[in-house]
Amino acid sequence: MATIGILTGGGDCPGLNPVIRAVVRKAYNEGYEVLGIKNGWKGLIEKDTQKLDLKAISGILPKGGTILGTSRTNPYKKEEDLVKIKQNFKELGIDALIAVGGEDTLGAASKLIKEGITNIVGVPKTIDNDLSATDYTFGFDTAINTATECIDRLHTTAESHHRIMVVEVMGRHAGWIATEAGIAGGADVILIPEIPIDIDEVCKIIKSRHARGKTFSIIVVAEGAQFKDKSLVLQEEKLDAFGHVRLGGIGDALGQEIEKRTGYETRVSVLGHIQRGGTPTAFDRVLGTRFGVKAVELVKNRQFGKMVALSGGKIIAVPLESAVASLKTVDMELYNIAKEFFG
Ligand code: F6P
């Protein structure tokens, strides 16, 4: 019986367990065995695996995170790790690998294919929704629903205390979470990495809002947003294994500037990993399930080097490379809709 390996890499994300469950169910229906690789590429380096039978996936559909564990291990960081990955792929008897991850995990998968580990299929995952070649990644819907609920909660305090509330959300270098949660939560200003922050403009919007009788404002800022005026940035840069800057801190910097310039009491809430955790929404469970089933179909049809994707409501296969070729930034048509409600 042929064996399909599956790993989940990068940040955890609601919807990973529905993918794992779907892969295992479809694989068993098609006569494959499934080997779970623990903690992303790290598990392939260390030969840390777990057999995934129907019992192992029972009850995991509504659970956030990943039963396989994850890590940000970069297989290309150390030469010896790469050698081990290639060797262990063979020794573990993996006939095909389903790599579930974002830009980094899929980028590494794409490189491995070029180096001869060809039997790989990708599944796009990230709460950031910043992968090109797919309309949506699972996890994003759960993240924006959580962030929207948080904004709703912050609204009540902002209103009662007549404060400005700055809400910092994740999203890395794309402002999808900020834009969609901001629209859904009725934010008065939304600041995203795609457009440098003009602090004078932000304060003008807040002041004009207050001039028409409002006594509170909600500002949603994406963690990757930056001031137009570079002298206002105060970030100490820490890098992860893939060389990405660990973001965070813009909310505090923004809150301080707003309070200083407007005189209104300003408080900051950083949602952080709260928006990445918890049970997946129905949308993410369905998307993850569709992706998982399709990934096994690709393996069965030997369509390696592909990634499953959502395009106009249909699940399709796209070249794995296209998924990581460019960052999918916020659609300005959508952002302009959000702007209609600023102030
Ligand atoms: O890519 C998902 C994400 O949650 C980003 O929005 C965020 O910048 C990053 O991961 C945080 O990563 P970590 O949990 O490793 O700090």
**CA-atom Rg in angstroms:** 22 Å
Supply the helix-strand structural class. Answer: alpha/beta
Q: Give the averaged pLDDT, no decimals.
A: 96
Order of helices and strands: EHEHEHEHEHEHEHEHEHEEHH
**Largest sheet descriptor:** 7 strands, mixed
Ligands present: 6-O-phosphono-beta-D-fructofuranose
What is the general shape?
A: elongated
Enumerate the spans where pLDDT stays under 50 for 5 or more consecutive residues.
none
Cross-sheet strand order for the largest sheet:
3-2-1-4-5-10-11
What count of helical segments does DSSP give? 11
Report the end-to-end length measured between terminal Cα atoms: 62 Å
Quantity of strands, as a count: 11
Helical percentage: 25-40%
Strand content range: 15-25%
How do the helices and strands line up, and which of them pair or pack?
Layout: E1 3-8, H1 16-29, E2 33-37, H2 41-46, E3 49-51, H3 79-91, E4 96-101, H4 103-114, E5 120-124, H5 140-161, E6 164-169, H6 176-184, E7 189-191, H7 199-211, E8 217-222, H8 250-262, E9 266-270, H9 282-300, E10 306-311, E11 314-319, H10 320-325, H11 332-339
Parallel strand pairs: 1-2, 1-4, 4-5, 5-10, 6-8, 6-9, 7-8
Antiparallel strand pairs: 2-3, 10-11
Helix pairs in contact: 1-9, 5-6, 6-11, 7-8
The structure holds 6-O-phosphono-beta-D-fructofuranose.
